[in-house]
Design a protein that fits this description.
The protein folds into 2 domains: 130 residues, Hypothetical protein af1432 (Orthogonal Bundle), CATH 1.10.3210; 104 residues, no CATH class. The protein is globular and about 60 Å long. Helix content is 64%, strand content 0%. The chain is mainly alpha-helical. Bound molecules: fe (ii) ion (FE2).
Length: 262
Amino acid sequence: MDILTDTEAVFKAYYLSYPRAEMNDLKWAHTRRVATDAKRIAEGEGLTERLARLGLLAAWLHDTGRFEQFRRFATFSDRVSVNHALMSCAEVLRLGWLDALPADDRNLVLRAIECHNMKEIPPGLPEDEQLAVHLVRDADKLDICTLLDLNLKREGYLESHPEIYWGLAFAAPPSEAVTGAILAGREVDYADIRSVADFVLIQVGWCVGGLHYATSRRLAAERGTVGTRERFLLKLVPESADIIRRCCDLARSRAKEAGHGA
Ligand SMILES: [Fe+2]
């Protein structure tokens, strides 16, 4: 079996080589969904065969280092352990998984893995690398949305699981810095996150400008990403209804530009 032709099977064998842990199972499930969405986006955008193939490979491998991170540090927090994207690159290289690829292809896959968790992608990347980086980042974001959707829809679940929302103030209004960034179409700065409302609005911001591909924005809209967050936030902080609606309306209008209502 070869990672280039039997990607899922080889990656699954790698994941199963680690001790059985719920956290590892979650990452395996996440990886499968990210790969599925990366494929959908590549098809929707009509990416070239090379970019679709290498981008899908990068989607499968983007979190390879999570298993080693959890084994060594018992956490997925990069802040208190290691940058898991760099650990993914190191593992992929150690395993020789990309050795049979031409150098350009290998570098493109590594670049997409390396940049998947950066706040912003570095300037000056070659265009094919940019497209692959955006593919993995969009698919990763879509799955983060899916996971939070499940928690938001379960009545009372989020409030009783502060680890999900970093222990932020629960029923506090959104920060002006966060809503201002969303309305200006800028990426929300995580340093401005003060409340659960801010945390939930991060992904409304993704629907405005954080998802690169129109297909990704369409998928987010089909999944009701904005509506789920809006309903949750209007209940949580009704005194901020006006600003929440403005942010969500903008996200919905972006989704319409991508060919779908939210
Ligand atoms: Fe990741």
